[in-house]
Specification:
With 347 residues, the chain is of the alpha+beta class. The protein has a single domain (2-340), classed as (Glycosyl)asparaginase (Glutamine Phosphoribosylpyrophosphate, subunit 1, domain 1, 4-Layer Sandwich). The chain has ten helices and twelve strands. The chain has helices spanning 3-21, 23-31, 51-62, 68-81, 125-135, 143-152, 164-174, 258-263, 266-275, 280-294, and strands at 43-47, 102-108, 113-119, 140-142, 205-210, 216-222, 243-246, 250-256, 305-311, 316-320, 326-330, 335-340. Strand 7 and strand 8 form a beta hairpin. The longest helix is centred in the N-terminal third of the chain and has 19 residues, at 3-21. The two termini are 35 Å apart. It binds glycine. Glycine binds next to strand 8.
Length: 347
Amino acid sequence: MSDRRSFLKQSMIGAASLALAGPTLARAAEASGSSGLPAARPRVISTWNFGDAANQGAWAVLSKGGRALDAVEQGVKITESDLNNRSVGLGGYPDRDGHVTLDASIMDGNGDCGAVAALQDIAHPISVARAVMEKTPHVLLVGDGALEFALSQGFKRSPFSITPGAVQAWKEWLKTSRYHPVANSEESTYGLGKHRGDIHNHDTIGMLAIDAHGQLAGACTTSGMAWKLAGRVGDSPIIGAGLFVDNEVGAATSTGVGEEVIRSAGSFLVVELMRQGRSPQDACREAVERIVRKRPELRHNDTQVAFIAINRAGETGAWAIQPGFEYAICDGGDRHGLIKSASVLSA
Ligand code: GLY
């Protein structure tokens, strides 16, 4: 199909989608003319199987013509609230000293961003990250300072710091104190010794959205590696590593072993590859392959890293080192459900 015909077809699909999506979205898209960004079909993409439920929270905002920034915050809060989730929010596994410490970041397409790391006792670190972005001149607050800031902003201390299930798992882990990252583990992302190929995936939730105004935003939140050293911070609250968003190009976020993502400035790399003309899928693939090229041992030690990405046209993509990574997309009445990611290694 010629470029022009392809463009016309895409435009017609876009217009029809907006019409089907209802008058609120159509009005919002019309208004986007003033933002200088092209009207877009709203869409949200999230990591792992729990991304599906989180997407519904984001869609409740996007479907009413709401902002991508509000959508990603509302969406990942659903995952943070799930106390059965062992790698996000206060339901997460603790560090090796028994403390659950939370990392989160949020960013919009204009470059505004905020993050918290090693935050304890607060149910929604993503909302504290947003407060850092909107209420302070800073980007990242950590530890006690982050907690003090949260309390000063009216966030309430949780009545519990760790769940009974996580305490039990931690005591079990203490018996051996074995520290061994395992890809896609069912029990935890890292450490309880489930085998590669378990695909009840638990790890960071990273979420990216585009709204009807063509604005992009992203959010990323996690309790980090189970049994980590006290003070360890992963990629999720590091802008450019766990999350990067630029309205001119697109957005990316990551999941998996944060150290590898930080070493490669992974999400920034994915966005810059899209800036050079790569599709979201191809950009994610190159970022993952670059990590493995530099550290070939990752092919053999169960390390998982995955990226998801969206560009300003709403096209999406993903790539992982190991098989077993899934992501979820929602863009309207259609729930695309879970999609199995391509990976460097095969099952
Ligand atoms: N990707 C989450 C972490 O490494 O903490």
